[in-house]
């Protein structure tokens, strides 16, 4: 697909990493022998960095700024592209089709992805990419968000309770 280019940020819609943000490293439109369909080599964030505040110590801030990445071959049907792009120069040669043949190569690729993403996060660029989807896009725009299915019933019950 023409719009799924290198650097495009997408969201995985199916499987273990559903709802996770990824950046496309290498699109393969025609497919190949091992994957005979349009797919992309992607790098994404499995565990997002936690919230940090100024009151926290430097060590705690560093610990909470850690990112757990993943690398994967994803079918185009399971990607939802966004309007955002991410320029990651360090990942151009790190992830290729040969990376997925051996586990050690995959682990090395994950380490380079982790390093580049953490550098990007600490520099303060592309903040949207480093927040989990549930906090950046809210499903209910009306403002009423129910954390529990019975929450509306509880509110009604408490309003009827004599003071």
TrEMBL record:
Keyword Endoplasmic reticulum in annotation: no
Matches recorded under Gene3D superfamilies: 2.30.30.770
Cited InterPro entries: Ribosomal_eL27, Ribosomal_eL27_KOW, Ribosomal_eL27_sf, Translation_prot_SH3-like_sf
GO molecular function, one term: structural constituent of ribosome
Keyword NAD set for record: no
Extent of the signal sequence: none
Pfam families registered for this protein in UniProt: Ribosomal_L27e (PF01777)
A single BP term in Gene Ontology: translation
Superkingdom as given in the UniProt entry: Eukaryota
Keywords assigned: Ribonucleoprotein, Ribosomal protein
Gene Ontology CC annotation, any one: ribonucleoprotein complex
PANTHER family for the chain: 60S RIBOSOMAL PROTEIN L27
Family affiliation: Belongs to the eukaryotic ribosomal protein eL27 family.
Entry protein name: 60S ribosomal protein L27
Record organism: Cytospora schulzeri
Taxonomic path: Eukaryota, Fungi, Dikarya, Ascomycota, Pezizomycotina
């Amino acid at each position: 697909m023409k719009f799924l280019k290198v650097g495009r940020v997408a969201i995985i819609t199916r499987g273990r990493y559903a709802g996770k943000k990824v950046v496309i490293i290498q699109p393969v439109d025609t497919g190949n022998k091992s994957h005979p369909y349009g797919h992309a080599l992607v790098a994404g964030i499995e565990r997002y960095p936690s919230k940090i505040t100024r009151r926290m110590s430097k060590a705690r801030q560093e610990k909470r700024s850690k990112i757990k990445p993943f690398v994967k071959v994803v079918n185009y049907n399971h990607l939802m592209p966004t309007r955002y792009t991410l320029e990651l120069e360090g990942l151009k040669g790190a992830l290729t089709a040969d990376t997925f043949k051996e586990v050690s190569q995959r682990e090395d690729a994950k380490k380079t992805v982790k390093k580049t993403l953490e550098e990007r996060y600490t520099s303060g660029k592309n903040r949207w990419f480093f927040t989990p989807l549930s906090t950046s896009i809210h499903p209910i725009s009306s403002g009423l968000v129910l954390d529990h299915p019975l929450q509306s019933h509880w509110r009604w019950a408490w309003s009827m309770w004599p003071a």
